[in-house]
Amino acid sequence: MEKKEEKREVEMISAKEIRDKYLRHDMMPHIFCTGCGIGNVLDYTLWALEKEGLDMDKTVFLSGIGCSSRLPGYIDVDSLHTTHGRALAFATGVKITNPELNVIVFTGDGDCMGIGGNHFIHACRRNIDITVIAVNNYIYGMTGGQVAPTTPEGDYATTAPYGNLEPAFDMSEMAISSGATYVARWGVKRPNQPINSIQEALQNKGMSFVEMMSPCTTAYSRQNRMGSIEEFWDWYDNKTILAEDHERIKQYGSEEEKEELKDKIKVGVLHKEEKKSLSERIQELIEEVQV
Amino acid sequence: MNEEELNKAKKAIGEEYQFIHGDTAVAYGALLAGCRFFGGYPITPASEIAEKMAKLLPKVGGKYIQMEDELGSIASVIGSSWTGAKAMTATSGPGLSLMQENIGFAHMSETPLVLADVQRSGPSTGQPTLGAQGDIMQTRYGSHGDFAAITLSPNNIQETLNYTIRAFNLAEEYRTPVFLMLSADLGHMREKVRIPDEVETFERKRPKVPPEEYIPFGKGEYGKEKVPEFGVFGEGYHTYVTGLTHDEHGFPATDDQQDHDKLIRRQVEKILDDREELTDVEKRSLDDADIALVSYGITSRSALGALNKGREEGKKLGYLRLKTLWPFPIKEIEELSKNVDKIVVAELNLGQMYHKVKEHADKDCEIALADKIGGEIHSPDEILAEV
Predict the structure, then answer these.
(1) Are A286 and B39 a contacting pair at CB < 8 A?
(2) Which of B12, B77, B237 lies at the smallest CB-CB distance from A78?
(3) Structural class in CATH, domain B3-194
(4) Shortest distance, CA A94 to any CA of chain B (angstroms)
(5) Chain A interface, mutation test: which of B38, B82, B111, most A Cβ atoms within 10 Å?
(6) Is A97 on the interface with B (CB under 8 A)?
(7) pLDDT tens digit sequence for B301-333
(8) What is the 3-state secondary structure (H, E, C) of chain B?
């Protein structure tokens, strides 16, 4: 992605300064529920933008429909809040038309993996140079808690009142197998790793996918009796295991440790490779055949 | 478009005179109009437009992409348009059905784009290789909610090229999607075409005020009053574009009746206020006519045959061809229906524009329908049978 060319001095900056610099204050108050992780995802994204020094006049945010898709509205930047599932297709048009722009997509698990699944795998396959930040709450939150393609088997949702009968998709694994060149997954409780990952995603010249597991304290928590907000956040935190620890236990761990792995969700930078992006290849073709 | 860009387009297109089919004429017209993005998905009988654009666009520095489906192709076109390109897609009935939600988004977000629809018989997969005129209402009422459409309907290959240019100009001028209606017969029929030397193009009005004073969905400051200026992504205007009902700054305003009413009425009026300016009809032999043949697109060529044959037989026939289908030419139909005793509407469906003609015609004028479906155009006799 393009960034300002001059060498930047990294200065101390306060959270208030970040808010004043990047947010649209006339859009407040926001729509999100107490205890939702979306605010943290926005916060981490803003810190990554600041660290990377992206020019906000040359950055476009896109989103589809759902809780997470309301995020671009709060950022003072060009943004396209599109139809359900289609943000990646809109983003493809934006990036190809003007490769100089930094293109970032906020999406959710229903938006990206359900209705938008086809656009998702093809955007990965094309390795189009955009950064996707997917807020995965494992449920359709905005519409009141219906079952999603990511809802774990057996979990409850308003449209799975007897427990979910279907196996779930792993979004990050889908991104990797479809051709994305940077894939990371994190919880929302700890800021540093996700901020670094979003920054690396912005730097990657290709399709970057950062999955953020975010507790839905309204729809998911209520139906699956996850307890208080604090308990739910801790539950998430305990559920995760670093990718390198996961790998180590798989190879050298005891039977007991291996058994515990089955219940864990791998977090970390899950995939990284160098590959030419589609926008780059289109530019090369134009230079070759232009009259 | 500047001289250099036009010359590039002409160079890519080649010979001044060519024997080409309608699909190719759409691609040529698009290039000459300044179209520099095409998001496509293959579908008979429109695929040749995508094929031509895939070949020609890189030659003029434009971008072609084949998307994963029609939902994606129209989405990529809207994204491209907001990034400043004149952008288009092409499809046929099944694809047009799939695009409807994002067509609504283009209306709501006032995004200029051109959609060429090479019609085939439906519903569903129907007769993929055979022509029809069954999508007329879909361009006007296909997406949910209230909006006004601009829909053009050429009847020969030169006009197809010229009207593609006109479609882009109208899209830019009114900040709206514009539909260009062909049918399989027109898309695949070859005629001699001259590539125009001079091309008049319209570029969307850009804001002249600094970003902090720019109101993306407010009043047009120096073009049409109901068409706000367009701040292209990447130029510092920080526009929030949403399919939600929004205020003039673009921010969601979803629970106030007045906000929605104000927004949608302006979007509809920006087109319907100019109904007469947009209306384009061709009239023949109407001065002394008792019976008028009303048609559009490929069917008007059969109607012309019927006119000539009927006149030879001594029938006092006249001919009115709708070149703009939407906005509907109300005044022309009102006037016509007062001057003739009967109107015969000929179209390749079981009656679509027939109902619009009936709605606006004088009550004393008889309205008949010469319908035809199944992938063949009318013979002149089939139209004369309804006279």
Answers:
(1) no
(2) B237
(3) alpha beta
(4) 5
(5) B82
(6) yes
(7) 999 999 999 999 999 999 999 999 999 999 999
(8) CCHHHHHHHHHHHCCCEEEEEHHHHHHHHHHHHCEEEEEECCCCCCHHHHHHHHHHHHHHCCEEEECCCHHHHHHHHHHHHHCCCEEEEEECHHHHHHHHHHHHHHHHHCCCEEEEEEEEECCCCCEEEEECCCCHHHHHHCCCCCCCCEEECCCCHHHHHHHHHHHHHHHHHHCCEEEEEEEHHHHHCEEEEECCCCCCCCCCCCCCCCHHHCCCCCCCCCCCCCCCCCCCCCCCCCCEEECCCECCCCCECCCCHHHHHHHHHHHHHHHHCCHHHHCCEEEECCCCCCEEEEECCCHHHHHHHHHHHHHHCCCCEEEEEECEEECCCHHHHHHHHHHCCEEEEEECCCCCHHHHHHHHCCCCCEEEEEECCCCCCCCHHHHHCCC
The predicted-structure confidence for B39-91, as pLDDT tens digits, reads as follows 999 999 999 999 999 999 999 999 999 999 999 999 999 999 999 999 999 99
Specify the pLDDT at position B11.
Answer: 98
The model's pTM: 0.97
On chain B, the residues whose CB falls within 8 A of the CB of A72 are 240
- For the stretch A53-96, pLDDT in tens is 999 999 999 999 999 999 999 999 999 999 999 999 999 999 99
Extents of the domains making up chain B: 3-194, 282-384
Pick the CATH number of B282-384 from 3.40.50.920, 2.130.10.10, 3.40.50.970, 2.40.10.340: 3.40.50.920
Q: ipTM score of the complex?
A: 0.97
